[in-house]
Each structure stands twice: as structure tokens, then as C-alpha cells.
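Sample intake — TraB domain containing
Collected from: Athene cunicularia
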Amino acid sequence: MQEEQQPEAAADPMSSSDAPEDGPKETSSVSQNISDADAFKILLEMKMKKRQKKPTLPSTVTELDTEDGSKVYVVGTAHFSDSSKKDVVKTIQEVQPDVVVVELCQYRVSMLKMDEKTLLKEAKEINLEKLQQAIKQNGVMSGLMQMLLLKVSAHITEQLGMAPGGEFREAFKEASKVPFCKFHLGDRPIPVTFKRAIAALSFWQKVKLAWGLCFLSDPISKDDVEKCKQKDLLEQMMAEMIGEFPDLHRTIVSERDIYLTYMLKQAAKQIELPRASETEPREYIPAVVVGVVGMGHVPGIEKNWNSDLNIQEIMSVPPPSASSKIFKFVIKATVFGLMGYGCYRIGQRTVQFILSMPAAQSYLQKLTEIRSQH
């Protein structure tokens, strides 16, 4: 069922519709005599010849195998990294995949077609309109948490002058150059992740997390980002996070590890070759898949690879807990309190300003004289 719902974009730049219409008549007559199945096999053979049997891959690539012989090459990336972009391009060119799976969901797919300049501007601008959209899409609590995490992303963007997700855009471009290569979105929908993350935290954990994200200001260098590609440093950072917010790590990292693993395994199912007629037996060949995910998800994908996975449980959104209701009430009370106080201060100053005007003072003096006469 899940496989049918996978968003994908087929990249087939070598299809017959792109071929020039004019040309020698002999070529046209020959192409008319070739069936779709034969044409597919010819193009597939060309692709296989270009595919390296023993590819030279970057050190950030982890190779995984399925029971039916399919291969999955998982590229672990740092989301703000030029070298990660190069790793993705190199891997796709070497293995000529049938499917490319990226750590994105349908709510973040717009970044694939935006240019770097636009993304840089979008990432830096966090305004009321974005907050309203996040709350409308995810609810009050999840929307606020999303905006706080966007603030973290904007902080890194501002520090490095680099928009996030460059490796995903490179993967999208390179996939379009490979014949018959499909492009899958492999991450769990972000509203589900945020709602499950919020539900997993206690009231004080939410306050502590929000406080830490609000006052994030430590400088970040490009060297810091590149160090994130080293597993030892990454594991140390994750261990610190687990110690402080173990439930948050479970929902944002561990559960998404399971989801990404499931989607990669779905993409790695054998490919059925086209048949010239219904009477011909079905033929299948192993698939080659490239996965592009953050380096922090690679250990979890390796851990879950040989397990039977069920994603139904991690797709459900639990009802809000008592602490969530309290936190939501506090946030609303604070917002309305500030708005009320603002209106009061504005009203008070407005009244004082009107009363200080000469015309108003003259009018009040006349009223006083009239009252004293009566």
C-alpha cells in the first residue's frame, strides 16, 4: 500500500518524444519496426554499459544489499555542505541508478526547484505569515516548534551564507540525466513528525527546548559542518542530544530511520522488464538505488536494514497529553495577554494625547463652567 503512495518523478530524457522529427527516412522506418519493449531493452543496455561494475565511490557512501540482489547506495550528507553535493553527483554518475530516494517529504519538495538565491532569502526570512501558515498546517504547538527549528536553520544559513538541501537539488538534477531513473520522496511527512515529537515531550521539556532554540546564537563555521560527516563526532553529538531529550530523539531521528529504511527497501524491489506480448514470461532484474540522507540517519538505516518493518505505528498521531494542553493554554494566554496589554497601553496613550490637545482642553473647560453654573 505504501509503495503506491510514493511521490515520484520519472526522469527519461532519452525517450522517443524528445527525438528530432526530421532526419533520414531510413532511420524513421527502422524505428517504426522496433517495439517499445525492444527500444526499452536497447536503452537499458546502454545504461548498463555506462554503469560501473566496481564503482569508485566516496567514503560517505554505505552499500546495502537486498535478498533478491538489488543494491542500495546510501550517501550520508551534511545538509550545508559543498562536498556532500559532489558526493551525490559522483555516486549517481558512477552507478546509474534506477531510483533515487531523498530525505524529503511532499511538504518540503518545493526546495528542489528553487534556486540558491531564493532559498537563501526564504531561509533567512521568518515572518508572521510563515508562522500563521505553520500553525494552520500543523496546529499551534507543532507550528510553533516548526518555526523554532526554522530559526535554527536560518541561523546556520546566516552564519554560512549557504541554503540547506543543496545535495537534494543536485540529486534531482542528476537523476533527470539517467535514463528511466525515478525520483522518490523518502521521508515521513513533517506534520506527523512534529506532532509526534510534541506529544512525546513533557511540559518542562517543551519549555526547555523552546528556550534553547529561541536563544541559539553560537557561531558556526564551514569546518564545523564538514566535521559532521565524521561518524565519531556525529555519534558524540547524538549522544548528548539523547541524554537531554531521549523522546525527541526517538520521534525525530529513530522513527524516521525506520521510515527511510522502509522507503529505500520499497524502491529496491526488482524491476519488471517490458514484454512484447502478454504470452511472454515476465522477466525481472535487480534494481540499483541511490539514497541521499543526512549522515545522522545512516547508522539507523544500517541497523534496521534486515528487520521486518511496520510503519503504521509511527504514522499515527497520538491525542494531545495533559501537559500539551497546559502548554498550549499558557502560550495562548501569553499571546492574548501581550495583545491586551498592548491595546491597553496604546489606548491609554491615545487618550492622554487627545486630552493634551488645546481644543480638547478648551472643550473640557467649557463643560466644567456649564456644570458649575448649574
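Post-analysis note: The longest strand covers residues 71-77.
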